[in-house]
Amino acid sequence: MRSIWNGAISFGLVSIPIKLVNATENHSIHFRQIHLADGGRIRYRKVCELDEEEVAGGEIGKAYEDADGTMIPITDEDLAQLPLPTAKTIEIVAFVPADQIDPLQMDAAYYLSANGVPAAKPYTLLREALKRSNKVAVAKYALRGRERLGMLRVVDDVIAMHGLLWPDEIRAPEGVAPEGDVTVRDAELDLADALMDTLGEVDMDSLHDDYREAVEELIAAKASGETVRPAESGDAGGGKVIDLIAALENSVQAAKKSRGEEGAGAEGEGDGGMADVHPIKKTSGKSSSQPTKKSTAAAKKSTAAAKKSTPKSTGAKKSTAKKTTKTAAKKQTSSSGGSGTKKTASSRKRTSA
């Protein structure tokens, strides 16, 4: 890894030559600005506001803008003459327990590498001293034109340094906490504890940036000319009043179900999904009775309509068909019987004649 700063750790009268190496890297996807009309890239040029001409980097200096807008030039020579003992030194000022460092102060992280063979012995001495004491070292150092605060700790077999914000750079959380007195019941706390126990721990190495992967897939699809389908986004239900107990219970069941634990999704305990978020409506006694009557009447009407629209059963069809057959048979019998009687009467008349 390429070093970004060379100097030494000042450990009392011991000086440890070191190299400063970035411990983190940024995987964010960066975009360029383009002209929508023709796709040309938009570039920013440094232009002097007085003569409106572009200025090269060698002609650009630093200045401090006063309250009235006056520019006070500050040269690199001016800054180099300032008494800054930490210009090339990480000066350890104290050793404190790690829990005394507020995580809000954490900034960039670096690895400190021993610079050369002679630095190996004192480097190892400081590393082992930090390990045995279970403490971290608070130090001052200068980087990129300003003095900074740092914390040295051991990571595996390497001394790491975290840049810290100065205490006066941490803002007080005024006006951030919820207003008014909020009461939390023991039952809600018990469910919250159960949810925390069910979720358990996580392998930090398994966590990854889903959004960055989606952006990469989008770029690959557009580059190959494929049609990009919009992703389905669920309603997060933000800003609505929720049934906290139901949400916690269903969250516990969902966590158990995702981990394959027994007893998840039992009857009467929900389907294991997240609780539906819905507003709590205030109802009075009168308003609650009227909708009940209307809904009962509507139910009766729908039942009657369903009876009328329901077709007759197969048994009814069979009995009707039998009745129809018998009626037709009777008609045929009566008609055939009448014609036989008429023929007999006529034959009798002929005989008597």
Shape: extended
- Annotation, overall tally of beta strands: 9
- How large is the count of helical segments? 7
Distance between the termini: 142 Å
List the helices and strands and how they pair.
Layout: E1 3-11, E2 14-22, E3 62-65, E4 71-74, H1 76-80, E5 89-97, E6 106-114, H2 120-133, E7 135-143, E8 146-155, E9 158-164, H3 186-199, H4 210-223, H5 244-258, H6 285-309, H7 314-352
Parallel strand pairs: 1-5
Antiparallel strand pairs: 1-2, 2-6, 3-4, 5-7, 6-9, 7-8, 8-9
Structure explained in plain terms:
The protein has 353 residues and is α+β, with helices and mostly antiparallel strands. The protein has helices spanning 76-80, 120-133, 186-199, 210-223, 244-258, 285-309, 314-352, and strands at 3-11, 14-22, 62-65, 71-74, 89-97, 106-114, 135-143, 146-155, 158-164. The strands form 2 sheets. The protein has a 7-stranded mixed barrel. It has a two-stranded antiparallel ribbon with strand order 3-4. A hairpin with a 2-residue loop joins strand 8 and strand 9. It is extended. The termini are far apart. Residues 265-299 and 305-353 have low confidence and may be disordered.
